[in-house]
Write a structure and sequence with these properties.
- By secondary structure, the protein is of the alpha+beta class.
- The protein has one domain (3-245): Glutamine Phosphoribosylpyrophosphate, subunit 1, domain 1 (4-Layer Sandwich), CATH 3.60.20.
- Helix content is 21%, strand content 30%.
- It contains six helices and 13 strands.
- The chain has helices at residues 14-18, 25-28, 70-78, 134-138, 145-158, 163-177; strands at residues 3-13, 45-49, 58-62, 80-88, 105-107, 110-117, 182-188, 193-197, 203-207, 211-215, 226-227, 232-236, 241-245.
- A hairpin with an 8-residue loop joins β2 (45-49) and β3 (58-62).
- The longest helix has 15 residues, at 163-177.
- The relative contact order is 0.18.
- The model has no long low-confidence stretch (mean pLDDT 94).
- Catalyzes the hydrolysis of the gamma-glutamyl amide bond of hercynyl-gamma-L-glutamyl-L-cysteine sulfoxide to produce hercynylcysteine sulfoxide, a step in the biosynthesis pathway of ergothioneine.
- GO terms for molecular function: hydrolase activity, acting on carbon-nitrogen (but not peptide) bonds, in linear amides.
- This is Gamma-glutamyl-hercynylcysteine sulfoxide hydrolase.
- It catalyses: gamma-L-glutamyl-hercynylcysteine S-oxide + H2O = S-(hercyn-2-yl)-L-cysteine S-oxide + L-glutamate.
- Keywords: Glutamine amidotransferase, Hydrolase.
């Protein structure tokens, strides 16, 4: 469920990355090619981006389908950035959170997205609640599984974990509590990207000219797209991509 994408590279109009490619994230909202769970990503969308000289990203999120939002079309046509994270949300159960449940989630310099699901939520992750300070639980943006995963990862970031380690440890803790969880996580601070492939597709495109895209699926048929194996941690910059296998949690 869901599709997401992060980009680091030369400044471009957001739409060049999100809308222009033939199988863009925009098109994936109704016609994904590699989505294994769900078929229509119409229950919200969002894009976060960084402006020169400001480490705190801006966001534009809505609760409806991206194809019906004229303001999104204008925004992505004129706003330029060298770093962004965007997501379209799979059709899901009705809830009161609306826009707040749409990725990317944000705190300080960070943008975060979750592609996947946690069966049995929220009871299946009740054992992980004591790992979070009460203030972190009370300040969650939404009451969905993705927001809770973000709270877990953000707590690790705030206590000093590197981005890739924060995602890896979050995935292993959640998978131990709910082995059926699908946990493709995506995180950026505008300078690096960290991601996990755990139960769904993940790909990356590294341009020798100095750009990196990490996405749920390729947005075009460029042969340089590389699939990330399942149970893998990805750490990327504008010029390098490092893949590290993730071990299954201990029984």
């Amino acid at each position: 469920m869901c599709r997401h994408l992060a980009y680091l590279g030369p400044p471009v109009a957001l739409g060049e990355v999100l809308n222009a490619p033939p199988h863009s994230l925009f098109r994936q909202s109704w016609a994904p090619r590699r989505q294994r769970h769900g078929t229509v990503n119409a229950d919200g969308f969002g894009v976060g981006w960084y402006a020169d000289g400001d480490p705190v990203p801006a966001r534009y999120r809505r609760s409806g389908p991206v194809w019906g939002d004229a303001s999104y079309a204008d925004l992505t046509r004129v706003v330029r950035s060298g770093a962004l994270l965007a997501a379209v949300r799979d059709a899901t159960l009705a809830g009161a959170d609306g826009e707040a449940a749409a990725a990317p989630y944000a705190a300080g310099p960070w943008l975060f997205s979750h592609n996947g699901a946690v069966p049995g939520w929220p009871g299946s992750l009740a054992s992980l609640v004591p790992a979070l300070p009460a203030a972190d639980l009370l300040s969650m943006e939404a009451r969905c599984d993705a927001a809770f995963l973000w709270a877990l990862a953000l707590h690790r970031l705030r206590t000093g974990d590197e981005p890739a380690q924060a995602l890896a440890d979050t995935v292993l803790d959640v998978a131990a509590a709910q082995p059926a969880a699908r946990l493709n996580l995506l995180l950026t601070n505008g300078e690096t990207i960290a991601a996990t492939a755990w139960g769904d597709t993940l790909w990356y495109l590294a341009d020798p000219g100095g750009g990196t895209v990490v996405a749920s699926e390729p947005y075009d048929d460029d042969p340089r797209w590389t699939e990330v194996p399942d149970r893998t941690l990805l750490a990327a910059s504008r010029t390098d991509v490092l893949l590290t296998p993730l071990k299954e949690p201990a029984e």
